[in-house]
Amino acid sequence: MKIITVLGARPQFIKAALVSRELRKEHQEIIIHTGQHYNRELSDIFFDEMNIPQPDYNLGIGSDTHARQTGQMMIELEALFLEEKPDIVLVYGDTNSTLAAALAAVKLHIPVAHVEAGPRMYDKTIPEEANRVVTDHISSMLFAPTPLCLDNLHREGLTKGVYLTGDVMLDCFLHFSKEAEKRIRILDELDIKQGSYLLATVHRASNTDKKTNLQEICKAFMELAKDIGLVFPVHPRTEKYLKQYDLYQTLANTPNVHLIKPVGYLEMLVLTKNAKKILTDSGGLQKEAYFAKVPCITLDTVSAWPETVEDGWNMVVGEESDRQQLRRENIINAIRSFEPNKKQHNIFGNGKAAEKICDLLVC
Ligand code: UD1
Ligand code: UDP
Question: Fewest beta carbons within 10 Å, which of 68, 69, 127, 257?
Answer without folding.
Answer: 68
